[in-house]
Amino acid sequence: MAPEPGQLSSLSNPLATVDQLSTSSSQLDGVPADLESSLRFAGAQLTQAAGILLRLPQEIIAQAIVIFQRFYIGSEGGSFRINALKDVSAASLYMTAKISFLPQSTRSILNVYAYLLSPTSPLRQSPEGSTGKERPDAESYYLSEGSYHSARATLLQTESILLRSISFITQVILPHHIALTYLQTLGVLPPSPTAESSALATRTLAHLNTALFSPQLLYLTHQPPALAVSAIYLAAREIGVKLPSTEWWEVFDVDRETLGFLVVGLGSCGGWIQSERENWSATTCPLTLDELEREIKRRVVENG
């Protein structure tokens, strides 16, 4: 993965190639494509939940999710059957926080993940079957010393594997601030925001956050300015805010074809997320290697 030629390094990310998108290590190791998409979504959810429990800002959480997604790209990337989803998620969040202004200790990271992987975790229980009353406070969940030292060794080893896999490119430029700047440039986000402009900004950022869970890996296939423009376009259309009648997106170097593709992709994210939740409503998506092996074996038996 490398930045596109001619792109400003301050506004660009390394993007996945066509070859990387067509084949993954997980698929080569026998993980069905639909299950791989579910695992990506589950990993992003796990990272998001851990970041929230650690009280990290959305910027750090979003960057960690992108790093997590980068790791499993291409035939040279990680495989869900070898590199446990939970370990890569923890390493992504630990590494991203470490190079930010809010580094987290290994114990804090591992305690949170131990809670989220426990039977009482909200990620382990279907919304219909859990009242939440039986769940202990996440802050009171601690690993024993022996378990902690073993988990810490795994965390640091996974971080090393992760860094090598992504060629030590840890930069993740997010489109959120770019989108707000573009809204101001378009004159629809004045210094003193109105109810309409605030709703537009909120809706735009919501689309960008939802896109982190996209099965199309939009953050790995398109640069931040294109994502920002598309989120603005879609949010304005949904809320009914009038934007310039000219092809304003071209000012930000986004062509109509790219805009159309991303608008459709962003608009479909919510429905896909809902379908994933329904598909796994009776059980939970595999988060460990053992759980993944059981799910693959179950599918083999069902398919004869």
What is the tally of beta strands?
A: 0
Biggest sheet record: none
- The CATH topology of the largest domain: Cyclin A, domain 1
Over the alpha carbons, how many angstroms does the gyration radius reach?
20 Å
Structural class: mainly alpha
Give the termini distance in whole angstroms. 39 Å
Strand content range: under 5%
Please give the CATH architecture of the largest domain: Orthogonal Bundle
Name of the top-level CATH class of the largest domain: Mainly Alpha
Integer tally of domains: 2
Helix percent band: 55-70%
- Low-pLDDT residue spans: 127-132
General form: globular
The CATH superfamily of the largest domain turns out to be: Cyclin-like
Helix count? Answer: 13
> Helix and strand succession?
HHHHHHHHHHHHH
Mean pLDDT comes to 91
Protein name: Cyclin-L2
InterPro entries: Cyclin-like_sf, Cyclin/Ssn8
Organism: Imshaugia aleurites
GO molecular function: cyclin-dependent protein serine/threonine kinase regulator activity
